[in-house]
Amino acid sequence: MSCKVRLMEDGSLDEEPLTLKEIAYQKLCNNLDIISGLRPDGQRCLNSGIVLPNEICDGFLENYQRFNRPLDDSVICLFEDTQRTSLKIVNLRNSTLSSIGLETLMRHKLFALSMWYCDTITVRSHHLLAHYGDSLRSLELGISSHLLQYAEPNEKEPVDFQLTCPHLRRLVLNGVVMHHRLQFAHLHDLGHLDLTSCVLANFSLEALGSLPNLHTLILFNVWPIANQLHAICCLRRLCTLDISISSSGSGQGTYDLPDQTLEMLMDNLRHLTHLDISGTNLAGNGVATKESTSAASTAIQSSSSTKMEQNFALTDIPGLASRTQRPLQFLGLYHTAHWACKRHDIPALEVAGDANEQQILTAARYYHDRPVLLTRVLNDLYHLFRFENCKDIHTALDVVLSAMDRHLKFKHMQISGSATLFYIVKGRDRSKFGTLLRNHIIRTLLNGMEMHLTDDTMLRNGYLTLTQFHMPADVLFEYERLIKILLHGVSKTEQEGFVQRIAIYLLNTLACQVDGRQKLFLGELGVVSTMLTLIKDRLTRSVFDDVMEVAWSTMWNVTDETAINCKRFLDGRGMEYFLKCLHTFPDRDELLRNMMGLLGNVAEVKWLRPKLMTQEFIEVFARLLDSLSDGIEVSYNAAGVLAHIASDGAEAWTIKTPSREHVLERMVAAIQRWNIKSERNINYRSFEPILSLVRCYETPQCQHWAVWALANLTQVYPEKYCQLVEQENGIQILNELIEHETPYSEIKRIARLVIEQCDAGTERMVEG
Questions:
Q1: pLDDT tens profile 612-659
Q2: 3-state class (DSSP) for residue 217
Q3: How far apart are CA 509 and CA 438, in angstroms?
Q4: Which of these, 495, 435, 437, 499, lies nearest to 467 by C-alpha position?
Q5: Tens-digit pLDDT profile for residues 145-160
Q6: At what angle do helices 435-451 and 456-466 cross, to 10 degrees?
Q7: Cα–Cα dist 735/192, whole Å
Q8: CB under 8 Å to 765, separation ≥6 — which residues?
Q9: How many CA atoms does the CB half-sphere of 468 hold within 13 Å?
Q10: Which domains does the chain have, with CATH numbers?
Q11: Are 219 and 199 in contact, with CB atoms under 8 Å apart?
């Protein structure tokens, strides 16, 4: 498994950029209409005149899955015509193709087929191997690929199959029941055999003795195996042997004579370079020895062999005494009895274990397709990062991302991996992450969260990790998918639980700092209605919490200059909830500020203002003019709401009490009480609504509020708002106001303050 995360020349961590060919594949995968059309049955059909050679077809399938596209029968139909398309190497993972789709692929006389997590393929399709397996050189049937196994655990009878793939060089089976009639003798080319988690039942490994080229035998999680050791010892050409197990519970992995058993294997399998005995007691109890106990090995050696006298050096693994001068290239000691991986004298160049960072990373690389074991390895890595002891960040990142990408459907893997990612991203090296790597981390997190939406632990880990990124800049490339996941966390998880709180916090952060198009999308997905539902729930229970406060803040953000979201608020009984919150929680300053900020956005929409023109609403807004809550914020927003309503003219004021004149008098009195230097808790992206009130010569009181708002913002935050006034033609509009005869002197005085402040800001920029 190659490492994709690189330490770049500038010291940053990143992934290699896409090649031109990969970019072309990405474009094609995102736009299948370039080469195909849709048939009436919804399946894809390759356009006439298009012929795709093997290199393109293989690469297309690989990259289609790489770019997170669901590979199903519709896409597979592109390869129905074997005269115009050609497939040789097919790797399927998390695919939903059916047996029909699989047959379409196998009709191409494949060279290699790999299937993992292809749940919809059933044992009823195993006949396809008999019909189309003659060309196969490599066959890999991983987890949840039920071609040779029953998906239901109550199915006890093994599938009666024969490996009618005579040219196989590599065979990987997972969880298959091996019946005693199964023949291997005809597989003369077979060199790599992986029987992970297979049930041998009445099957004897002696059947493998007829394989002249067998060099690799993987028997991970195959138990009991003690009665098969004699057959294994006869496979003299083996270079790689794996007899590890994932756990030592119920006596699994425990041998009666561990030292002698391991020595026997070493004496007979002299070409071994890779050995895995993880989870067993074959490494002994850790007592160093110079003696070679060869009773067991003598019994198995053929009469023609001559036992040479050996001078064994010290080793802490007695059964490997013969390899001290010729160490193994790899030795798996992960979770062995008596903590064998922590011993000093281990005759191997590379060790998989949990004694230190190097061993853990080695284990992660070697066990990349063993999800249960790999989850434990990632847990070890998590503890390393939690205590800031991991130094090889780029390798650690690579193994975690690879594990999560490969085993998307394995929930515990996603939980463990996301917890590890949190501490990696939280660490001091975060600033070194390049854009491609950062995108990969975020995409992998979203994939896991999307797959396991109902698991609160997965959502919690993902949300917490996302808080470590810069919002919204780092997530804009996956904005829509993230919003959907956050909305689920807000609406479908435990009320007032941590997951709900962190989700609504992230949602509000995203709503606050995005443009109008994305605010529209938020409304279309139901953000406003979701927030109103949360508020209704808390009103029903008379509960005030941070979720309610942030719910109002989120609606304040998504209604900013987005009229349709304002309408959604009104249509969702928003004003009713506003009044109830005001009555139920009268002393909550932050709540009041958020609600009035939202209503300020609603009041900016001319065609919605008639809905605010009721005696009850106007009396509430007028009363809030005198509020001292949160500095001037509540009073300021109440005045803004009333100013916009009044700007529609006397004829639009359809209530008798309070009168328009009385309300305007109170509004001016409130404005005159405010300190022009007051700091604000507000963010304007445009002054267009305020500048429209500056032009409201029919109602000077509205102009008063507007120029005061501009003066305050330019006085307190000149760097940001002076430039905004100038960009939106505000200086010309203010000069016109000063020249006009209608506005009273106080309005013109404040308007001059704005112009002077902007002129001073321009001078500062020139001097700078």
A1: 999 999 999 999 999 988 789 999 999 999 999 999 999 999 999 999
A2: strand
A3: 19
A4: 499
A5: 777 755 455 554 555 5
A6: 160
A7: 85
A8: none
A9: 22
A10: 14-288+315-358 (3.80.10.10), 613-767 (no CATH)
A11: no
